[in-house]
Amino acid sequence: LGWTVDAEPVPLDTEFPQWGDSRYVRLVLESETLTLAEALRHLYVLLPVLDDAKHYWVSADEVDKLLRAGEGWLPGHPEQQLITSRYLSRRWSLTRQAREALELVRLAEADDSEVESIDNAVGEETEAEEKPTPLAVLRREAILTALRARGAARVLDLGCGQGQLVQELLKDVRFTEIVGVDVSVRALTIAARRLGLDRMGERQASRVQLTQGSLAYTDQRLKGYDAAVLSEVIEHLDLPRLPALEYAVFGHARPRTVVVTTPNVEYNVRWETLPAGHVRHGDHRFEWTRAEFRAWAAEVAERHAYEVEFAPVGPDDPEVGPPTQLALFTLRAEKEAKAA
Ligand code: SAH
């Protein structure tokens, strides 16, 4: 960690040197570059680790505390396994959760992109040194453009994952209320950490909320928003579960605007790294052609009284189309009201 450590054992009792040393040391940490805040975060984690005896009940929020205090040093620490396991009092399931989260953080920090690295492997034709814009960035830009065009202020990010879109939404004051929903507590923990929710000013914090929930069930909390985003989410549901999501979002929550993005499977042949016939991500339950996506979207729109338009995300290949397809739904009553 970069400290010069001076640890001098403290005698059990100075009156009786024959009793030997106590289990305590007088500790001095010195560094030219590290800050006091870093020292406190290191000690917060490492004192119980060195002690190897936690004196209070270890609950699930200890994982969050560990991730927060370990930010910037624990993901890459060579003794990460030992530290994590001892900090969590060797509670196996918590340790595994923490280690998985740390690994995701490490990967994300390694290239500051999503875990779905293949999503980022493509972009427009570019000069040798110029990096192509990651597809994930193009996707977020397309979504933000659609939301701004609709004048949406209160926005749901459904299946928000690690909170990258929420982070972008927060940068624009036009978005006054941003709610990230995901079924994965782990993803939400990482999102909270990415956003720095606990360090955020009150004003900023009041604009954002992360909450756990499944899109396969109707949820009262999701009613009354201007817009909902489903960015690369539908393909993570088993096809037989998709109608439940459709109903929960379009039938029950019923925001004025819904933006849906999903991979265009036709584009997969343009990826040299993707073996033929493979989906882009291990958790994708299906990937659709442009025709399949349009047919689904048109049917959903019809059933729930929305209008739908389509837009490409990324380079629109003349033969196979764009890497990602976007559908923009508008509630019909809204459209008529606008026209009037
Ligand atoms: N929207 C993000 C993340 C996409 S990954 C982005 O565009 O990068 C898909 C996300 O959907 C995952 O975080 C996963 O946990 C979430 N998800 C999958 N099924 C879900 C469900 N039934 N309810 C809520 N979230 C779900």
| SSE order | EEHHHHHEHEHHEEHEHEEH
The geometry reads as elongated
Q: Which CATH architecture of the largest domain would you pick? A: 3-Layer(aba) Sandwich
> What does the largest sheet look like?
7 strands, mixed
Average pLDDT works out at: 86
Number of domains: 2
Looking across the biggest beta sheet, what order are the strands in? 5-4-3-6-7-9-8
Radius of gyration of CA atoms, rounded to a whole number: 25 Å
Strand content: 15-25%
Topology (SSEs and partners):
Elements: E1 4-11, E2 21-30, H1 36-51, H2 61-69, H3 80-87, H4 92-111, H5 135-149, E3 154-158, H6 164-170, E4 177-182, H7 185-195, H8 202-205, E5 208-212, E6 227-231, H9 242-253, E7 257-263, H10 290-304, E8 306-313, E9 324-331, H11 332-339
Parallel strand pairs: 3-4, 3-6, 4-5, 6-7
Antiparallel strand pairs: 1-2, 7-9, 8-9
Helix pairs in contact: 1-3, 2-4, 3-4, 4-7
The structure holds S-adenosyl-L-homocysteine.
